[in-house]
Design goal:
Layout lengths: L7 E4 L5 E4 L2 E2 L5 H12 L5 E2 H8 L5 H19 L4 E3 L3 E4 L4 E3 H14 L4 H10 L14 H26 L2 H14 L4 H14 L2 H19 L5 H9 L4 H11 L11 H13 L5 E5 L6 H12 L7 E5 L6 H12 L9 H9 L4 E6 L9 H10 L3 E7 L8 E5 L12 H6 L1 H13 L10 H10 L4 H6 L1
Parallel strand pairs: 1-7, 8-11, 8-12, 9-10, 10-11
Antiparallel strand pairs: 1-2, 2-3, 4-6, 5-6
Helix pairs in contact: 1-3, 2-3, 4-5, 5-6, 6-7, 6-8, 7-8, 8-9, 8-10, 9-14, 12-13, 14-15, 15-16
Length: 468
Amino acid sequence: MEPNSIHWKVRLLGPLEVDRHGVAARFRTKKTASLFAYLALQKGKPFSRELLATFFWPESEFDGARQSLRMALSNLRSVLGAEILIADRESVQLVSDLVHTDLDEFESFHLLAKSNVARHKESLEQALHLVRGELLQGMSEDWITPEWLRLQDHIAAAGIAYMAICEESGSYELGVQAGKKLLGLMDFREDIHVGIMRLHAKAGFGSLAIAQFEELERQLDELWGEPPSQAAIDVLESVPRGKRQDSMSISTEIRMSPTQLIGRNFVLDSLVEDIVSAQSGLHLTLMGPGGSGKTSVAIECVRRLDPHFAERIWFVDLTATTDKETAIRKLQLTLGLATGEISEALPSILRLLRGTPSLLVLDNFEQLLPESAEWVAAIGSGAPNCHLLVTSRIALNIEKERRIAIGSLDLPDRSMSLSAIRECSAVQLFEREGRAANPRFSVTPDNAIAVVELCNRLDGLPLALELA
């Protein structure tokens, strides 16, 4: 029977939903709903009454469990119709032709994808769209977990096939979205992690592939204390290193606007001049409160210095990194180095950074202090031609560190003329962002005092002004 003539439609992937022509079924108890879900999952298969009674009511005496089963079956008939069940004194089963589940639909799309190359991608998309959540999400019956584990392999196979098609067709973002959706629903799946890494690498987002590898490595270590598979390492080693990856990671992943920074030209000019004219590597720490724009200044500095370093610029975002070892591992991966024993990490980093002048940016370093300051100092002394540019809310307090304050933008006050107010960098930034939201916006005599108050209340911090 075709699905459009099926009596009841049942959704098992996600919260249980049972409806007929848009009218939802309502069962008397959660146990009755669970019993129906179990029968629907294996519809057409007969189950002994004794098994069902002891399986669903294990806490009851046998006669009480049998009575509970009879009541539950009676409720199913009253809600879904007497014809929904085939039952006698010994066994019970659901009538297959009167129930159509989302798992039936998933299987039909999956089979179509295997048999019809022309509809391969479309069919797999439709199959994966049916996976709304975990099996019977919200139910806590013991039998659900093993059934869900069994289904995961089947769903993952469809997901991996879809990701492979996306890789072949260049639909990298669609493949990544599908992979991340499945990772959010399932227990640990290294094969899906590897698929996402491959898609990021093919799209040219090397640092995203590296970040996915790091997440895989972390999960494996937490679960079983094991390293990633050779397949994952092979993808990692295929990730392009160098300027193209770094420039893309800065412009796309950090999503820094190419618009010229407001109120930071003096700092930027000074930074670039100092680094270009230096005879040996400098250690510069951009210091300022959160939201002051340290990262934006560092990224613009990288852009201006890019022609000077012949693909030897690396930008390491340490925002989500909270311990020294993880930070060193992330630096190794960004540099394209193998991750072996942690004791060998620093020597391998120094070997790469020695010699030809280079620039290494360590962004958002403050949460790693003071424990991680020592290895930054070791890079400074062991790789004398490497310029270190660190952004941090606090100083590293190590030898040769030069601190550069990144504070608030210039603030206006009420006593200024309108032209003077508009020349303040805080107001200029607010006006630029306002025009991005509303092209007709400008600072006028009517709103100037309100803008002055807002800029001062936000302490002239670029991030706060942009959000406002």
